[in-house]
Every structure is written in C-alpha cells, then in structure tokens.
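Trying the structure run again after the queue cleared.
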Amino acid sequence: MLLNMHIKNIVLIDDIDISFDDNLNILTGETGAGKSIIIGSLGICLGGRFQKEILRDDTMDGIVELTFSIDRECIRQQLENMDVYGDENDELLIVRRLNKNGRTINRINDNTVTTAKLKEVAAVLIDLHAQHEQQTLLKPSMHMEILDRFGGGDIAKIKGAVKDLYDTYVKLKKDIEESSMDDNEKNRQMDFLKFQINEISSAKLVSGEDEELETAYKKAVNSKEILSTASEVYSVTGYGRKDSSADLIGRALVQMKQLSTLDSDLDALCSSLIDIDSMLNDFNRELSDYMQSMEFDDAQFASIESRLDVINSLKAKYGRSISDISLALEKFESEYDSLVLYDEQMEKLNSELKNVEKALAIECDRLTEARKNTAKKLCTMIKEALIELNFTSVEFEMSFTKLDKFTQNGNDQAYFMISTNVGEKVRPLFEVASGGELSRVMLALKSCIAYEDDTPTLIFDEIDVGISGKTAQSVAKKLSIIGRNHQVICITHLPQIASMADSHFIIEKIVENNKTTTNIRKLDNESQIDEISRLLGGETVTEATRTNAREMKELANQTKIY
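Done. Tokens:
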C-alpha cells in the first residue's frame, strides 16, 4: 500500500509529507485549497507530464516521492518479474524530480529508470481514478479493455495465443502478397534472371585473375617506354660506346692491374675494381635478358584488354570484385530456382495461411466464449453494485458483435448496455448515461474489478460528482466496502462520504507573511466532526449541524465492518 507521499516545490506546495493508513483515507478541503495539486502530484509520480511551469520556485527542483509497502506476495512477484525489488523492509520508493533546467529524473529505489518503466511499475501499485477517467466509459473501445482486465489471467492467456497466431497470419498474408505475380511477370523475371546467370557463368571468372590482368595490362601499355629507357640505361652501362661505364671501368682495370705489379699495397683496390667490373657485367647481362623478354605482342595485349573489359563490365553490374559477382550469381540462381518452384511454394504458403486462419478463428471463438462468460459474471456484479449505489431499477449487460476481420485482440466488438428505468430497453452506456450516473457506474466497475484485481491502492478523485443525499450514502458504503480489502484514497466534498473515513485528512490553504501555501494534516475525532460540519453547513456551522455531523460519524462507524 501507499505509506507516504512527499511533495516539494509544486504550485502552492512548499514541502509536505502525507502518511496514509490502511482502508479508507478521505481527503477534504475548501475549493481552491489544493486538492487538485495533491492528485496532480500523484499523477506525476505515476508517470504523468512534469512541466517546469508548475514549479513554485523555478530556481529549485520540484520533487514528488511515493513510498510503498510491498505487503502482498502477488505484488512482490509481479515486481520481481520486472526486476524491481523492495528494500530490507519490503518498501519501495518512487521518485520523480524536475530540475530547474526542465529535465525530469525518474528513480525507483536507487535506480534511475525510464518513464515507461516507472509507469509499468506504478500500474502494479496504484489505480488512479481521476475526474476525467469516467469519460472513458463513453468510448466503446474501452469497455472490452475493462472486461479483459476483469477476466485476468484466463483471458490474458487466450489473448496471448490469439496475438501469436495473428502475427503469423499477418506475416503469411504479407509474404503471399509480396510473392504474388501473374504468369507474364513470372516469365519476365525468369528470363531476366536466366540472362544474368548466363552472362556471369559464361565469363568463367577465376578468383584473383582481375588483379593479374591489371598488372599485365599496365606492363603492356608501358612496354615501349620501358624498352626505350632500358636501352638508354644499357648503352650507358654496357660496351656499346667508348665512354660507357663498362668500357671506362675496363680500361681503368687494365691500368690498376699494372699498378698492382709495381706496388702490392694496391692489390686490395685492384680486387675491388675487379668486383665492380663483374657486377656491372652481371647487371648488363640481366638487363639485356629483360629487354629481350619485353617484346610487344599485339594479339596478347588485345586479349588482355578484352578480358578486362568483360570483367569490368560485370563489376559495374554486379559488384566491385569477382567475389561480389560470384555472390550475385548464387543469389540469381536461388531466385531462379524459387521461381521454378513458384506454384508449389505459393500453394504451400496458401495452405499454411488456411491452417493458421483456421487456428486463429478457433482461438478467437475461445476468446469470445471466455469474454461472454466473464461478461455475465461482471455485469451481474455491476448490476448488484449499482443497486447498492441507489439505482433502484437497473439492468446492465454487455453487447457482443463479430468483426469482419481478425485483430491481435480477437474479432470481438463489445460494449456495455444499461437501463435505469422500469420498462426501458437497455441501450449503449455511452449514449444514455448522465454525469452522475457515469460516476456511479465507474465506482461500481472499480469495486467489481477490485475483487479480482491485485492492485493494493485505489485512488478516487471526486467520484461523488453529480450525486447527493441517499445516493451519496450508498457511494460512501461502497467505498468503505472496497476499503476492506484495498487501501482507498478518496477526495470528496460530500459529508456522507467524509463520515465513512477510517483516516481523514484536510487540505488547507494558509497565508503567512504574504505567502500562500497548501498544507495537509490528519484530523482527530473532534476535528473530523468539525470538518463534516463544515461540509454540511458551509460557512455557518450551528450546534445542530455539529450534532448532525456527530450522528453521521457514529452511524458510519456502525456500518463499517473490518
């Protein structure tokens, strides 16, 4: 349940703490005292919008904190399934902070979480009925959501099976639609694929040959320039000219040999020159052999150029390398084989679709049956609850029609039907219910779902709108009944409901030092009588009013059984 709420720097609130109790917690206060701020802050901490404009002081952070006690095993298990755990005291803290820069920070215990995660966790802990929520009853699409929630795990299991089958159904339909083609289109695709396959296959590509051909082509293109330059080098280093290197070194070697006969100290130098002469001779011989091998062959060049043209043309169409072209060939062959087996594959897909469609129809029928059975139980409970809420003659049903298509939620369309007068036919709830009636219908729904729902804390913001007198007394009793198994927090302006409080809080607007703030405090027994008197008598509270208030409180206490 919700143990404590801390609000700081939000609208008229400086810094307040509210410690809630079990059973029925009632909040009252004069118009404008700040009741909506309390509910708004609750909504913020449950994942609602947190805007900088609501900060009381925009130079400070705004903070809303909720502390929960995890005292139900089913709630603990649901949270653990989300990887959320209470502390050593089985308590859980949700914090939303809006800093002065407009950035919102969400935390669960010591962990920062996304707003989506925070909403998911909060939904397990609190069901907040704000003033506008009863308007959801005017939307037929919401009625089946309410029914499914009441149905709990049984309906959820069937819905899961329906969704899985529906997803497969949609995928198969998409595959068939994307694959469908007439014979002319199929033949065109096969002809084009066959052309592509033949074009690549006939080239008989060899891995790495493009690199070898590029090297050979470059050499052939530059062969004339290579030969010319090599010949010039050979004439400089060979024996073709009198001033060539070989000729000059040869003459120098003859003279060096003569010198070494005159002085043996020159033998080493003579030997070095002999080595140079020998190396130059080897160089000239190898250069000569290279030039002889460089004979230009026009036919060979044309063959290299033609082969490169074929390879480059295929690269331009199918990939940047021979490896890419080979992969493209495999893809074309696979697509061609698929088209060869097209009729067989389409027959298989259509057969699978029929089987899935049949299974989906069966599961949708199961879901419809489960929903109808659940609707009977829910509508009976709602009718009983409405009678307790002073609908003296009421019928409440749920209408079902079949959609002409499947959805992931089945193929049902369902909405609530109501009659509030004797002899009047049931009509759609969204067509006939007034504001006050919608409030009571919503309360009846909440009370019924509460019996099946594990959510420990229910919050009602002015569920009593549009009602008074005997009906208000009926609503008070219903809230008290819900409070037997759930923590209920209710904002009200009716004395009948306020008198039923197990814990009563007053929300006040205080002006001090030219500064207006909202405060909240828990009332003792006498203070509760004072507040109920105010609700009964307005500005003027007489002793008779106080006596009436005391009687209302005593009668309420006698009514409550926990």
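The chain has a mean pLDDT of 87. Worth checking whether this holds up in the mutant runs.
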